[in-house]
Amino acid sequence: MGEKDKEEVNLRKRAEDLLKKAGKSTPRIVHQRAAEVIHELDVHRVELEMQNEELRRSQVSAEESQRKYAELYEFAPIGFCSFDRKGQIQQVNLACALMLRTEKRYLHKRWFRSFVSPGFRDEFDRFFHTLFKPGHRESCESQLTRHDGALIDVELVGGAVADPALGVAHESQIAILDISQRKKAESWSRRLVETTQDAVLSIDRKGRIVLFNAAAERTFGYSRNEIAGQKVNVLMSEPYVSQHDEYIARYERTGEAHAIGRIRTVTAKRKNGDLFPIELSVTEIPTDEDVHYAAFIRDISDKTRLQEQLVESERLAAIGATAAKIAHEIANPLNNIYMTTQLLERELAKEGNPVHGQLASDLETIISETARLNALLQQFRMISRKETYDFHPVSIAALIKEVADTCRAIWAHQKIHFDHVFEPNLPSISADRDKLKQVLLNLYKNGAEAMPGGGKITVKASSTETGVLVEITDTGTGIPPDMDIFEPFATTKVDGSGIGMVVVRQVVTAHGGSITYHSEPGKGTSFFIALPALKS
Q1: Residues 6 or more apart in contact with residue 221 via CB below 8 angstroms
Q2: Is residue 477 a contact partner of residue 528, using CB atoms and an 8 Å limit?
Q3: To which H or E segment does residue 186 belong?
Q4: Residue of 257, 199, 190 whose CA lies nearest to 232
Q5: Which residues pair with 140 in a beta bridge?
Q6: Full pLDDT tens readout for the chain, 536 residues
Q7: Are strands 467-474 and 429-431 parallel, antiparallel or unpaired?
Q8: 469 neighbors 444 (Cβ within 8 angstroms)
Q9: Helical ranges in 357-510 per DSSP H
Q10: 0.70 exceeded by the pTM?
Q11: Measured by CB atoms within 10 angstroms of the end CB, which terminus of the chain is less buried, N or C?
Q12: HEC profile for 468-486?
């Protein structure tokens, strides 16, 4: 009984008592007391009417709120579903029914788990068992099988619905979001990352690698399993190795970026320790706590090599043009000196004065030096003029054997031995036989001259992804580490011109190949010639 009701009962009892005493009291007193009671009854009536009006307004408001909630629930763009502790559906909204391609009436008392695709049911079961903890919210990604058999990717977000009277959760409700388009976009993005020819990797806030695509595996030589979790510094050269952690810390602290948002050319390091140039673009991913930075990397070794070759070709062309002018100016005087010296030698012999002693030595020096200068002029002309090539299919193994047999006969007396090792089924190449023989002869000659006391020249040929690799190794004195033998006029020989290796590289480049070398002083030198296979 409420306070107002108790007050009304008390007033009624007082009125009854007044009536019983009416006979014993004077009319004036009775009338006065009755008036008091009536006044109190009027006041109480007004209060009750006001209270009833408030209750009526509250009821109307509650009914309106309930109606609006029902409309919001029913016509929400997100699917809603309520089910009991057994997982039986108790209520669904229109969006949920449309999502499952069926009518609402067919969903009542159905097991929600029956709509979960078989491959996702274990994860759903773990999700379902957390839903009846009061105040707990849980989410998971899943896949539902629609009534017509089609599949839909969804995100489920749910929690318990508590019974106000019992204070325990008797029912759970989930919101169902269609994430099919997001999944398609993510799948497309993953395929793009995996199929792009550029290396893509991402790191967390601590600089640890969390994504490493197939192109990154090819570029750096690591598999994604062995590189995952390692610091990204392992892919860098100095000074970036020691500076990178501090750079991330400074950026996290100040927001001051030096690399983010720009394309830079830097040096990277492969698993085998080789350093190579890359173009690097870094971007920040602020919406993901685990993957915080992404890097897009392009190996520009070939581009850099082509640029260097272009610069080298232009430089050699300039040298050749200058040399050609010089050769033109001095060729005729030099020939005159050579012929005059020979005539002088013959005239002295005719007069019965045989050339001997210091004069003979001087004449021989003049003739040999003149001949050497003529040969040097010819090499200058080779640099300056544009060579023509006659390409045909060539067996590199047969060509190596042919040149080796010739050199073996020439240098047999110097105790120089030749050996060759070929992989079976080497691909044919497109080559100018004479000019490629010139390359091999020049390299064999350099090797033989580096072994004055005898030694061994070994030639190996093997297949590569793009063609063949020829390796020519000698056991000679080696090349000084501070010398670039492809630099014009650089030579280790007393009487060398330093032009031969320039010509060798020109010929190899004209064949679409490349030539490099490795040398250790006192242990020998290895040249590596990469040539493309004959296109079918």
Answers
A1: 270, 271, 272
A2: no
A3: helix 180-195
A4: 199
A5: 156
A6: 556 566 656 656 665 565 555 555 445 555 565 566 566 666 666 676 677 777 777 776 666 666 766 677 788 888 999 888 889 999 899 989 999 999 988 998 999 999 999 999 999 999 988 887 777 788 899 999 998 999 999 999 988 876 554 445 567 888 888 988 888 888 887 888 888 889 999 888 788 898 999 999 999 999 999 999 898 888 887 776 666 666 766 666 666 666 676 788 888 999 998 889 999 888 877 665 565 788 899 998 888 877 777 777 677 667 667 766 776 677 777 777 777 877 777 776 666 666 566 766 777 778 777 777 777 777 666 666 667 889 999 999 999 888 888 887 777 778 888 888 898 888 999 999 999 998 999 899 888 888 888 889 999 999 988 899 999 999 998 888 877 777 766 566 555 556 778 888 888 988 988 888 898 888 899 999 999 988 76
A7: unpaired
A8: no
A9: 357-384, 396-410, 433-449, 500-510
A10: no
A11: C
A12: EEEEEEECCCCCCCCCCCC
Whether the Cβ atoms of residue 13 and residue 7 lie closer than 8 Å to each other: no
> For residue 507, what are its two tokens?
């010929």
Distance, in Å, from the CA atom of 89 to the CA atom of 103, rounded to the nearest integer, reads: 13
Yes or no: say if 499 and 460 are a contact pair by the CB < 8 Å rule: no
> Is the Cβ–Cβ distance between 299 and 276 less than 8 Å?
yes
SS in 3 state form for 307-327?
Answer: HHHHHHHHHHHHHHHHHHHHH
Of 263, 268, 280, 276, which is closest to residue 236 (Cα–Cα)? Answer: 268
Beta carbons of 416 and 456 less than 8 angstroms apart: yes
DSSP class per residue in 55-82: HHHHHHHHHHHHHHHHHHHHH-SSEEEE
What the block records as the tokens of 165 is 């009277």
- CA-to-CA distance for 482 and 465, rounded, in angstroms? 32
* Joined tokens for residue 176: 């169902």
CA distance 443 to 410: 14
Euclidean distance between CA atoms 114 and 109, whole angstroms = 12
